[in-house]
Amino acid sequence: MIKRAAPFVLLIPALLGLTGCVISVGGDGYEYQDGDWQHREAKNRKEIARLEPGMSLDNLNSRLGTPDFSEFHQAEQGDIQVLFYRTHRNHGDGVTTKDECTPLVFREGRLVGWGEAAYRDI
Known about the structure:
Radius of gyration: 22 Å
Strand order of the largest sheet: 1-2-3-4
Mean pLDDT: 81
CATH class: Alpha Beta
Strand content: 15-25%
Number of strands: 4
Number of domains: 1
Shape: globular
CATH topology: Beta-lactamase Inhibitory Protein, Chain:B, domain 1
Keywords: Signal
Helix content: 25-40%
Protein name: DUF3192 domain-containing protein
Structural class: alpha+beta
Largest sheet: 4 strands, antiparallel
Distance between the termini: 75 Å
Order of helices and strands: HHHEEEEH
Number of helices: 4
């Protein structure tokens, strides 16, 4: 009986040692946990500061990853896509809202502006 229980007795401490561990699989290399929102915002601000007009949507996605929000509009001047990336914190509720993001405006897949003024002008 004791020999049968031995493997379980050894397994219990190992399982208790894993309590609180997080294992992340996949993602874009920037997975954020509690308290890491500051790192995420800083990374986004740094990348946005390096933007240049005319950049492709694919280039930007490879640098910034998945946006927090996105919009698509069809207009006379062409298809417009707006991507929103979190860059600052307004509310301490743990939920990202558009007013905590910087909008990046693309026309026909090319960056034409960023920031609130560029978003208002579309």
